[in-house]
Amino acid sequence: DFRVVVFSEHDIVQQLLARYIGGRAKEEQLTLFEFNSKTPPVKRHKLIKDFQDEGGKAKKGAKVFVVTYATAAVGITLTAANRVYLMEPALDPAQELQAAGRIHRLGQTKPVTVIRLVTRDTVDERIVAVAEKKLDLDAAILSDPKAVAAEENRAMHEIMEELLG
User: Which of 77, 83, 146, 155 has the fewest beta carbons under 10 Å from its own?
Assistant: First the structure.
């Protein structure tokens, strides 16, 4: 009777994951929920309600929700879940934090496990490195904005070169 939310950065990855999990749903005795940028808002709300429904009319058993960061990282609550998979890193680290925040928020009564997947020797590693630099820069700006002003331009230039280069 577990609940899992799987986040993806890209629609194509989300669709492939949903297809794979959906193909195994009956044999694994789980219910698949999924949406992306093409799913109408009314259908999204119905899917969220059914996923969240733990004791009502909705089908009991394991539930897996596969969504993209862009469509599910803001404005929804998925506190029925207790496990989150971040399938690939987002260019904006705040997007990953927001995604995990959909599950780990006010109203959550279970411990939450967040699993972030990063593939070695791929662009994923570079994205994570850039995200870490961005978070460090954000922290420095918040702690001493005047001292960081000159460094900010240099650091942002360095980040862009690393990402593109």
Answer: 146
